[in-house]
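Exercise 7. Given the encoded structure of a 91-residue chain, write a plausible sequence.
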């Protein structure tokens, strides 16, 4: 049976992979030219850093923190906003 700590480690690994993908996608978004889009991209990068800090703290804190807050909700918002910016680059 999987322990809570193993589950936390698995989730942290998954979110770190998502952060790597996020970084790859932000590189594509660097070509955005509108000031408003560039400001949103900068804001997303700031949130990405906060999320990475959260993951670092989660890894070094009690497992109960994962149960008390949901990183998936944070991730979904960031990913949705980034996808909308990337769509502007692609189209």
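Solution.
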């Amino acid at each position: 049976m999987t322990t809570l700590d193993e589950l936390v480690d698995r989730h942290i690994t998954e979110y770190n992979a998502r952060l790597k993908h996020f970084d790859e996608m932000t590189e594509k978004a660097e070509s955005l030219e509108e000031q408003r889009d560039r400001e949103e991209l900068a804001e997303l990068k700031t949130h990405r850093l906060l999320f990475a800090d959260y993951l670092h703290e989660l890894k070094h804190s009690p497992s109960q923190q994962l149960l008390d807050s949901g990183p998936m909700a944070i991730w979904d918002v960031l990913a949705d906003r980034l996808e909308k910016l990337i769509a502007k680059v692609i189209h």
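Remark. The mean pLDDT is 79. Students should compare their own answers with the one above.
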